[in-house]
Amino acid sequence: MNISTDARRRAFWAVDRLQGSPVRRSLRDVEAILAAPRSAAVQSFLDRRLRRLLVHAAATVPRLAGCDPDRLASFPVVDKAMMRDGGADFRSRPYLHRELSETATSGSTGAPFRVLRDDVKVRRNAVDALALARAAGYDVGMPMFYLRREHPTSRLHAWAENLIDIDVGALREGSAPREVARIRGTRGPVALIGYASGLEALGREIEALGSPLEHVACVISLAESPSEYLYRAAPRCFGRELTARYSDVELGLLAQQRPGERPYRVNVASHHVEILARDGDRPAAPGELGRIVVTDLFNRAMPFVRYDTGDLGRFAVLPDGTPDTTVLEEITGRINDQIYDTADRLVPVLGIVRDWGAYPGIEEWQFVQTGSGTYLFKQRATVDPERDRALAEEFRSYLGQDARIEMRYVDGIPLLRSGKRRAFANEWDRGAGTTAQLAPAS
Question: Phi/psi of residue 420, each to 5°?
Fold first, then answer.
């Protein structure tokens, strides 16, 4: 470990001690639970944690009034659209006038959704990220190269955390050699985390050079399902097995693979996960693919109870034939619509717009690829030509400056039979073999 990394690590824990060690205590909680998630003691503890959250939700959230805290099944299954349209009825009354953390996500419905979090949930998200990163090989203070499209971290915060951003859009435009050189020139163990497509671009550049990286501590992919190439190439390019992560904006970190493994270990310390049947709200049969429904154990300001993520998955099955609720054997998406840029390269749709909050007035939207290099953006929104021009410019920054984009106002976006709207659709007939698995949400 180099001097800079060691200094940051010591400073981080010193500040935590001065504040009463909230991070260290929460970190111990997460790591102890994840070390033995199926033990009777842990299961009993998590049952009590779940019940406390349900008691709070039933007593303070108008839409959940009358539900039985002793029966999770008495609570309704909800989704983004229901919680968005329900507004304050899905918020805890004691938190209505408190200052809360807020973020916005379009999610899979293509309609903006405001998520509110109290301070405890914000801290828990950070601790979950640290705990699971440590499980993959990361340690506090280590240089972390973050491959993403948005760079929300302030320069001071990034310096303190030793966070180095890599724009995955720039990788597509030819910056991979420069970024590989920057990683190679960084002293000490480093962490690589970010979009699977970005990690793949780095891997292909490293293979072209014929000189693998030798000081990578962990490789963590998120936002997109890793390709088979990335799983195979990670050890020979980065010297580490790939670790894939499953998360979303609303809930946080839901599950993560162990390095070199394909099943996802559920973050049961912070979330209770159910797999429900695709055609109803009953539990799926052991090993059956069903809807991933999550109860967040820490967000008391805006409780997410039995929240349908929109993804499909299945639990692993124990030797006695019962589902192992701590392991997701498979995670997939309900809709598979991939978008390609003007050079016929796959675009990570989860990052296709950096900040939807910068484009107010849009109630619903859908982005459609209609042909090679041609796209249609449908929106139910107030008419705003300046916003349309800005959006089209941002789309072209991802798709190519020669992209032909039609901006169209509509009365509404048609619903799928599932009741959801498709945020992204591909109507371009590219022939057989163009459909791939939809990545889990990030």
Answer: -105, 160
Give the count of alpha carbons within 13 A of 172, CB side only: 22
Cβ-contact 204, 234 below 8 angstroms: no
Beta-carbon-side half-sphere exposure of residue 392 (alpha carbons within 13 Å): 18
* Nearest residue to 142 via CA among 127, 126, 155, 161: 161
CB contact at 8 A, 272 and 251: no
- How many other CB atoms are there within 10 angstroms of residue 84's CB atom? 16
Q: Tell me the three state secondary structure of residue 272.
A: strand
Q: What is the DSSP letter of 416?
A: P
Strands 264-266 and 271-276: unpaired
Of the candidates 275, 230, 284, 236, the residue with the CA atom closest to the CA atom of residue 257: 230
The predicted-structure confidence for 244-289, as pLDDT tens digits, reads as follows 999 988 999 999 999 888 999 999 999 999 999 988 899 999 999 8
Contact 57, 91 (CB under 8 A): no
Q: What is the DSSP secondary-structure string of 360-386?
A: TTEEEEEEEEEETTEEEEEEEE---HH
Overall average pLDDT of the 84-103 stretch: 93
**Continuous segment of H or E residues that includes residue 390:** helix 385-399
pLDDT of residue 228: 74
Q: What is the DSSP letter of 438?
A: P
Helices in 20-161 by DSSP H: which ranges?
22-35, 40-60, 80-86, 119-136, 155-161
Q: Which two tokens stand for residue 6?
A: 């060691």
CB of 303 closer than 8 Å to CB of 57:
yes
Taking the CA atoms of residue 94, residue 95, residue 97 and residue 101 in that order, the dihedral angle to the nearest 10 degrees is: 170
87/106: higher pLDDT: 87
pLDDT digits (tens, 9 = 90+) for 326-351: 999 988 755 445 688 999 876 766 55
**CA–CA distance, 384 with 305 (Å, rounded to integer):** 37
DSSP notation for 285-317:
PTT--EEEEEEESS--SS---SEEEEEEEEEEE
pLDDT band at 407 (very low <50, low <70, confident <90, very high): very high
Q: Is the confidence at residue 423, as pLDDT, over 50?
A: yes
Under 8 Å between Cβ of 422 and 366: yes
Check if the beta carbon of residue 86 is closer than 8 Å to that of residue 331.
Answer: no
Per-residue pLDDT tens for 175-198?
Answer: 889 999 999 999 889 999 998 878
Give the integer Cα–Cα distance in Å for 84 and 86.
5
